[in-house]
Amino acid sequence: MTVKAKVSHDQQIAHGMLGSLLFSAVNLGTGFVQFRLVVTYLAPDVAGLWMLFLSMVGYLVLFDLGMTPTLGREV
Fold it and tell me: Where does the chain have alpha helices with state H?
């Protein structure tokens, strides 16, 4: 018989905060790498178009307002 350790509400919130910070740090790091690759290897007009698309996706992710977890639960 296994016994599950109960995790307090405060610990769940702390884990959520740490996960959010980790996600933001990884997202920021990959954004810098992606920006560097786009600017270095693409022609200026194509790089500008990619930067426009990446900016729009960044705003959509920023203002997601919880749609992704809701859709994930529904699917």
Answer: 9-41, 44-62, 67-74
Low-confidence ranges of the chain (pLDDT < 70): 1-5
| Residues across the chain | 75
Helix-helix angle 9-41:44-62, to 10 degrees: 170
Give the separation between CA 66 and CA 33, rounded to whole angstroms: 26
List Cβ neighbours of 50 (8 Å cut-off, separation of 6 or more). 38, 42
Amino acid in the structure at residue 2:
T
CB 38 within 8 A of CB 50: yes
Token reading at 74: 């529904």
Query: Cβ of 54: how many Cβ atoms within 10 Å?
Result: 14
Structure confidence at residue 48 (pLDDT): 93
Q: What is the pTM (predicted TM-score) of this model?
A: 0.59
